[in-house]
Specification:
325 residues, alpha+beta, four-stranded antiparallel β-sheet, three-stranded mixed β-sheet, 11 strands
Length: 325
C-alpha cells in the first residue's frame, strides 16, 4: 500500500519497465519460433536417395539408402533400399532387406507395406536359391560353414538365400562333414544335418578338423623341410671335402695330380654334392605337393591361424611353425 499517492514520474518509470519486459518476452518467443529445427540425418539421406532413384541414378540412390539405414533402421527405408538393390541385381541383399521390411511392417500393422514387401519377396525369390539347414536341438553339430563363412545359429532351421548357379560347400563342425550344393534361380533345397554320434574326438586329426589330405600335406611338408635342412648339411660337408682335396693336390700342374688322401676327399666331396642336389629336389617337390594338399583340404573350412616363432635350445636354433584351427 502506498502511504502517499505515487507521483506521475514514478508511474511513468514503472510503466516503462513493464513495457520493456513484455517486449523482451515477445522477441524471445519469436526467436524460438523462427529458429530452424535440427534436420533428421536419416530422413535427409532417405529423401536424397528417393530423388536419386527417381532421376535414374540407382547406384547413388542405394548408397544414400544405406547411409540412412546406418543412422536409423526404418521400415520405409528398408523397402526403398530393397527395391533399389533389386534394380541393381543384388538379389541376395535385396531379399534380406525385403524380409526385414516385412517384419517392420507386420509390427506396425502397415498393410500397404506388408503387401509391398511380399510382392518384392515373390519377385526376388525367382532370382535366388533358397537353402534350409535342418538341425535338431539335440544334434552334436556345433558350427555350420557355407562357402567359407560361418552361419549364425539364429539362421539354422530357416531359409537363407544363396547366389544362383554357384557351388557352395556346406561344412558341419566338428565332424568335418561336407556337402556341396548348387541351386538354380528359384530353386529351394532343405538339408538335414548328417546323423553323427556325439562322442569326444580320440585323435589329433579329428580334434584339429584335418582330413586325410591335410595330414598327408603336413607330412610331406615336414619331409620337405627336413630335406632342405639335410641339403645344407650335405652342401657344407661337400665343400669341406673339396677344400681338403685342394690341400693334397697340385693345382699348378696340368693335369692336376693328387695323393691318395686328396683323391679320396675329392670323390667324397663329389658324392656329397650329388646327395645335396637330390635332397634339394626332394625338398622342393615334397613341400610343393604338401602345401597343395593342405590348401585343398582347408578350402571352405574355418579360418586357420598360423604363426612363425623362434626356437632356441642349447643344441640348435631355428624357427617353428604353429597352427590353430
Amino acid at each position: 500500500l502506498f502511504t502517499h499517492p505515487p507521483s506521475a514520474e514514478r508511474l511513468s518509470g514503472l510503466l516503462r519497465w513493464v513495457a520493456l519486459a513484455c517486449t523482451l518476452g515477445v522477441v524471445g518467443r519469436a526467436y524460438a519460433t523462427d529458429k530452424a529445427p535440427t534436420p533428421d540425418p536419416a530422413e535427409v539421406f532417405f529423401r536424397s536417395g528417393v530423388a536419386a532413384f527417381n532421376s535414374g541414378r540407382t547406384a547413388d540412390a542405394c548408397i544414400l539408402f544405406e547411409q540412412s539405414l546406418a543412422v536409423d533402421v526404418r521400415g520405409g527405408t528398408l523397402l526403398a533400399s530393397a527395391r533399389c538393390h533389386e534394380e541393381l541385381g543384388k538379389h541376395v541383399l535385396s531379399y534380406d532387406e525385403y524380409t526385414r521390411a516385412l517384419e517392420f511392417a507386420q509390427t506396425a500393422a502397415r498393410k500397404d507395406r506388408i503387401a509391398e514387401a511380399n510382392d518384392g519377396l515373390a519377385r526376388v525369390a525367382k532370382r535366388v536359391g533358397r537353402l534350409k539347414l535342418e538341425v535338431p536341438a539335440d544334434h552334436p553339430v556345433e558350427e555350420i560353414w557355407i562357402g567359407g563363412e560361418r552361419l549364425p545359429k539364429a539362421r539354422w532351421n530357416t531359409f537363407i538365400v544363396v547366389p544362383p548357379n554357384k557351388s557352395l560347400t556346406v561344412l558341419f563342425e566338428p565332424q568335418h562333414e561336407r556337402s556341396v550344393v548348387s541351386l538354380g534361380a528359384g530353386e529351394t533345397l532343405e538339408i538335414n544335418a548328417p546323423a553323427f554320434e556325439a562322442k569326444a574326438s580320440d585323435s589329433s586329426a579329428s580334434s584339429s578338423g584335418l582330413g586325410g589330405m591335410g595330414i598327408a600335406g603336413i607330412v610331406l611338408g615336414s619331409v620337405g623341410l627336413l630335406s632342405f635342412g639335410a641339403t645344407i648339411g650335405f652342401g657344407v660337408a661337400a665343400n669341406n671335402q673339396l677344400a681338403r682335396s685342394d690341400e693334397h693336390c697340385d693345382l699348378t700342374r696340368a693335369p692336376i695330380t693328387c695323393d691318395a688322401v686328396g683323391l679320396q676327399a675329392y670323390e667324397d666331396g663329389q658324392s656329397l654334392a650329388v646327395g645335396a642336389d637330390v635332397l634339394l629336389t626332394l625338398g622342393i617337390v615334397s613341400t610343393s605337393v604338401g602345401l597343395a594338399l593342405f590348401i585343398v583340404e582347408r578350402v571352405d573350412s574355418p579360418p586357420l591361424s598360423l604363426s612363425l616363432q623362434p626356437l632356441v635350445s642349447p643344441s640348435h636354433a631355428g624357427l617353428q611353425l604353429r597352427s590353430a584351427f
